[in-house]
Structures are given as C-alpha cells and as structure tokens.
Amino acid sequence: MPGVRYLLDRFRPAGAPGPAGAAAVPADRHRSVADEVAPILAALAEVEAQCDRIRHQAREDAERRRAEAAGQARTAVARARGEAAAIRAAAAARIREDTAAELAQLAARTTAEADEVRRRSGRQLPQLVSMVVEQVRADLANLDGSAPDSHPPGRGGAAG
User: Fold this and answer.
1) How far is residue 57's CA from residue 55's CA, in Å, rounded to a whole number?
2) Which residue in 11, 13, 82, 98 has the fewest CB atoms around it within 10 Å?
3) Is 0.70 surpassed by the pTM of this model?
4) Which residues contact 149 (CB under 8 A, 6 or more apart)?
5) What is the C-alpha to C-alpha distance for residues 70 and 78, in angstroms, rounded to an integer?
6) What is the DSSP string of 9-61?
7) Is the pLDDT of residue 159 over 50?
8) How far apart are CA 13 and CA 24, in angstroms?
C-alpha cells in the first residue's frame, strides 16, 4: 500500500510558482522504477534457477555422502567386532598359556616339597616306629601288669 508521502508527491506542483505551465499527468515514480528493474530481474531469473539447481544438486550430493559414510561406518564397526573377537581369543589363549606355566611351576614346587617331606619322613620313620612300638608295649604292660618283654611272640604282644 502506498505511503502518505507517495500520495502527497503526486499533488506537488510540477514547476516553480508563477504562470501555469503546460498541463500534464503527474509522474508515477514507482511504476517507472518497476519498469526499469523488470529487465534486470528477468535476466536474474536464469541465475535464480541455476542457484536452485545447484542447491538441489548439493542436497543430493550431501545425502549420497551421508549414505556412503553410514555404509563405511557399518563396515568399520563390523570389522572392529570381528577383530575384537580375534583379540579376545588371543588374550584368552595368552591367559591359558600363562596359567599353564603357573600350574607347571606350582606342580614343580609341590613335587619338590613332597620329595623333601618323604626324605625327612624316611630319616625319622625308624625312630618314630621305635617310639610307637615302645609306647604300645608300655600301654600293654600297664594293662596286664607285666613287663613289656614278658610276652612270648604270637600271644597278642608286639613282635620286636
């Protein structure tokens, strides 16, 4: 809608004060500006259409690149999951090997300790057997009231 100033501009005198000049229709400046700019805007219509085509192509390219990136990401994730399984298997094998080595060391230490116990018991066994036999004879003697050596062999006494 035209402003008040525009309306007032239409009724201004065309010339300086004085005798009347030739009669004329007031100029429509807005119409003349639109007539001047119309060819320029018409020439820009092709540029505008080209800009729309470029934007459309850019959207398509962006969507294609997003789809490609998503595919690459899925491939990378699948590869990583496959590698993770192999890495877990290798770690498990390494742990089994370490555990087997520890068990072998433990078995060797246990065998050495058992051998030491056998040696000590082999040295102490005759003395311990002798002590047990003497204690049994003493307990039997206390039950019968007789001396430990008084029982003949074969009568329930301990054989010497």
Assistant:
1) 5
2) 11
3) no
4) 137
5) 12
6) HHTS-SS-SSS-----PPP-HHHHHHHHHHHHHHHHHHHHHHHHHHHHHHHHH
7) no
8) 11
8 A C-beta contact, residue 127 and residue 116: no
User: Over 80: is that where the pLDDT of 108 sits?
Assistant: yes
Candidates 85, 140, 13, 54; CA nearest to 148 is 140
Cβ-contact 128, 139 below 8 angstroms = no
- Separate counts of helices (H) and strands (E) for the chain: 2, 0
Which tokens sit at 69? Answer: 């990136």
